[in-house]
Amino acid sequence: MVRNLSAEHSLISNWVSELRDINIQQDRMRFRRNLERIAEVIGYEISKQLPSTQIEVTTPMGAADCQVLEQQPVLATILRAGLAMHNGLLNYFDRADNAFLSAYRKHNPDGSFDISLEYMSCPDLEGRIIIISDPMLATGSSLVKCIQQLKNEGDIRELHIVCAIACTVGIEYVLREVPKAIVWCGAIDDELTAKGYIVPGLGDAGDLAYGAKTQN
Questions:
Q1: In a 3-state reduction of DSSP, which class is residue 105?
Q2: Whole-number CA gyration radius for the chain
Q3: What is the architecture, at CATH level 2, of domain 2-48+73-205?
Q4: With the C-alpha atoms ordered 140, 41, 202, 78, is the resulting torsion angle positive or negative?
Q5: Domain spans of the chain?
Q6: Ordered per-residue pLDDT tens for the chain, 216 residues
Q7: Phi and psi of 91, rounded to 5°?
Q8: What does the alpha-carbon distance between residue 48 and residue 158 come to, in Å, rounded to a whole number?
């Protein structure tokens, strides 16, 4: 299932336009904050679908019946680009457990690349709801590899994928590999270059948020 939050105009459309704009991109703080805000809104939308339960809360004047989350989700992200969106989700799911994975494209001389997964830290995932964030869903290869690694840690109850911009090709690949996942995105682009970059996309989200890197 795919939820494209730009299908109808909202503030998310405005924030996506700023993420794409080469002039506004120069403001790293604003770039990170726009990723964070998109994740906050998506987090709110996801919360409407999560299982809830009724509890009685004591107030200074009596008691009130309130609906609350049945269980806290686990917020997962892929370092480093996913950190801003992870913070946005954590602003709303402030009692959530957290998982962190390190995955990157290891390029080969022929122009192809493999996904290298070098680190993971997570709580017990058995029966848990997972919300994993990554700003760009391009080929979907790194995301699927990370999800498979998370699945090795327990039988996941629900899986929500949060991204700012997704590519049609990547969405199709992810849903083939993880059919029950729900993909939430700020916008969808149709083109993917031979090197696996989204067009028009926005560039390298990690570099724009945290500065250019050197990589051997």
A1: strand
A2: 18
A3: 3-Layer(aba) Sandwich (3.40)
A4: negative
A5: 2-48+73-205
A6: 999 998 889 999 999 999 999 999 999 999 999 999 999 999 999 999 999 999 999 999 999 999 999 999 999 999 888 999 999 999 999 999 999 998 766 656 666 666 677 788 889 999 999 999 999 999 998 899 899 989 998 899 999 999 999 999 999 999 999 999 999 999 999 999 877 889 999 988 888 988 887 765
A7: -60, -35
A8: 14
Report which of 145, 199, 200, 151 is spatially closest to residue 174, judged by C-alpha positions. 145
- H-assigned helices in 48-182: 83-92, 141-151, 168-177
Q: 3-state secondary structure string, 5-32? A: CCCCCCHHHHHHHHHHCCCHHHCHHHHH
Nearest alpha-carbon partner for 173 in 197, 199, 137: 137
pTM for the model stands at 0.90
3-state secondary structure of 143: helix
Which residues are registered as beta bridge partners of 149? none
